[in-house]
Design goal:
With 224 residues, the protein is an alpha+beta fold. The protein has eight helices and eleven strands. α3 packs across α4, α5 crosses α8 and α6 packs across α7.
């Protein structure tokens, strides 16, 4: 059973009433598949020929960095789509491996059927274009993040990105274990690097609150 109220919050269906979504989906063929926790949903490099939307639960996208280590790119929760930006174009391949974080249900709409939807509703088309543009920007930033070779550089980039132009104090949205997974490093290695940055006067850490003491010094760290 599809929760159409939840689906109306998906980037693809944003702004469409639940009854409208139910009506337009009723005119096309789609499938719903369930997966258990830790199931492999797609492997990086698999053909991307269907729009996939998480209906319940969450999944994570992973890829290997330049050393071969597995890096978590992000968690994707209902009702977000998977790799929507890779559905069209010449190289229709999933850029990441997708694994279930929990029991999940996924909505599958084939490319031809999804094209029918895009032709039916201009708002849906606009939503989709906005969605893939946002994902392209996110992936560009993530690739830049993965290009940093040291944990210290990754921490500096991550904190500066959270802080933006104005803030000097940030609240870490992830626990240390989750942050270590996000960085693709062990928890002790992350804790050690954070401690070094604290001792050297780059930052001041109080549990999940981090004060950036010198933004210029942090930026210089990225150049090293």
């Amino acid at each position: 059973m599809i929760d159409f109220d939840l689906l109306s919050k998906s980037p693809v269906f944003m702004g469409l009433p639940a009854d409208r979504i139910e009506n337009i989906l009723g005119d096309i063929h789609f499938q719903i598949h369930s997966f258990t926790k830790s199931s492999l949903i797609v492997h990086a490099g698999d053909e991307c020929n269907k729009l996939i939307i998480v209906l319940s639960g969450s999944v994570k996208g992973e890829m290997a960095d330049y050393t071969g280590k597995t890096i978590k790119i992000e968690d994707i929760e209902a009702p977000r789509p998977l790799a929507a930006a890779f559905l069209f174009g010449k190289n229709n391949r999933f850029p990441v491996t997708v694994i279930a974080n929990s029991p999940v249900e996924l909505l599958y709409i084939s490319k031809p059927e999804f094209l029918k939807l895009l032709q039916k509703d201009q708002r849906l088309l606009t939503n989709y274009l906005n969605s893939i543009s946002s994902r392209a920007q996110f992936l560009s930033q993530r690739i830049k993040f993965l290009s940093f070779k040291t944990i210290r550089q990754k921490i500096a980039h991550y904190l500066l990105d959270l802080a933006g132009d104005r803030l000097a104090i940030v609240e870490l949205p992830l626990a240390q274990a989750e942050l270590a997974e996000f960085f693709g490093v062990t928890r002790p290695a992350l804790a050690r690097a954070m401690g070094e940055l604290d001792q050297e006067g780059y930052i001041e850490v109080q549990r999940r609150t981090v004060r950036i003491l010198d933004k210029q010094k942090m930026n210089d760290l990225l150049k090293g």
